[in-house]
Amino acid sequence: MQRYTGQKRILVAVDCIIFGFDGWNLKLLLVQRAIEPEKDKFSLMGGFIQPSESPDDAANRVLEYRTGLKNVYMDQFHVFGKPERDPVERTLSIAYYALIDIHQYEKQINDEFHAEWFLLNDLPELIFDHAEMVKLAKKQLMYKAALHPILFQLLPEKFTIPQLQSLYEGVFQTQFDDRNFSRKLLSTGLLVKQPEKDKQSSKKGAFYYKLDQSQYKENFESFLNLVPNPDKFF
Amino acid sequence: MQRYTGQKRILVAVDCIIFGFDGWNLKLLLVQRAIEPEKDKFSLMGGFIQPSESPDDAANRVLEYRTGLKNVYMDQFHVFGKPERDPVERTLSIAYYALIDIHQYEKQINDEFHAEWFLLNDLPELIFDHAEMVKLAKKQLMYKAALHPILFQLLPEKFTIPQLQSLYEGVFQTQFDDRNFSRKLLSTGLLVKQPEKDKQSSKKGAFYYKLDQSQYKENFESFLNLVPNPDKFF
DNA sequence: ACAAAAGTGTTGTTTTTACACCCATGC
DNA sequence: GCATGGGTGTAAAAACAACACTTTTGT
Predict the structure, then answer these.
(1) 0.85 surpassed by pTM
(2) Is the CB of A166 under 7 A from strand D?
(3) Which of A35, B44, B86, B126 is most buried, taking the most CB atoms under 10 A from its CB?
(4) Rg for chain B (alpha carbons), in Å?
(5) Could you give the domains of chain A?
């Protein structure tokens, strides 16, 4: 096989920032690192790109291996590549964030890999530049979520509007007016009301909704503006 | 030096999609490829990442080498990494788009490297997956320019509002209402009116403006909405 | 005087916000 | 019957779009 000569090849990894939502709080899935250096510290889910894989393939493989989940929503958002970012050897990392419904996640795999959910606001110390990755991932998630309805990916098939609102409030770290939020949301035409209510969080109960999949796909690329004064956040 | 064992290292390049604006049209700077395969076809400005460089460093080096320009506005926007994208050898490419004031560009370097400006709507055939890169770069540029005042980077220090408008119209491939556009723009407080007028494009002449640098930095991260109905474009 | 482009004014419409109030239910 | 969220109504404010009209100046 032909090659480009005189060029140095570099190790390339993918790292996944896995966001989950349990109905109240936003969380991140981390693993305890099994090898030196920085053994036992926590790290993002990562792995090296294999010769036959595209970066997207690699990210999906890593995610499936760690969580058992396929067909998860993921966005490639940045390459981290300072020469000294990994002390062992120069490694580039292509970072993805993934959005998963936390209840789909199978607990047993969790134990096998020493994986754990952490509150997004209370993370342990992370290896290398992973804290920086998480910071940028949060920002990118806010950015995209302010304009496109991606946060639905974090919820189960049926969910209530108050649940969705607390998810948005978690992502944007603010409170929204509940009345306006639910009206805006319903006016998007993305939701299909279900006959049942969720009675857990209030006496009156909140109706469940499902996503209208065809509307969702159609509107995905449009701006939505569910978030008031998005300026504030950037 | 310690190394990760059993992992394959990959060649990593950067490619720059260089946008320029000459006062009327949006253009792209391309070079004629000097080596086989696909010799003499046109390609983006690219180069391999060196051991001591971050991807950003590499992109800046490539840009300076090809155009002589430093401190240019650039955004890393995507990694292209299909295993077969470069037929010579597997190569990942980290893609950047750059925005330069076309008049700052020094013509002589142009000739040396067989670099040429092409109208964005009339590009020659490109090597590998470079056409796909350009397509995504255009989309990303629209996306960012709809929300942040980055297009100023394509203009000289002093410019007129009609010039800026035709730049926006080039990027979004539509016509905007001139009255509303100029009013919106002035209301941002980003512009400082200059005493002189540009008389080239009309009898009346249009006042020159400069960017208020401190306002610019402050508002850079806010949403601006100079573009009506941004939904339409995504 | 006229043409051609710059740019200001005006107005009706839509979107957004803020907040009052009613609703359903478990205790 | 009352406390607790859930959800609808309404009205003021702000942003936006459409378009008429004035201004400037080279020919």
Answers:
(1) yes
(2) no
(3) B44
(4) 20
(5) 11-147 (3.90.79.10), 150-233 (1.10.10.10)
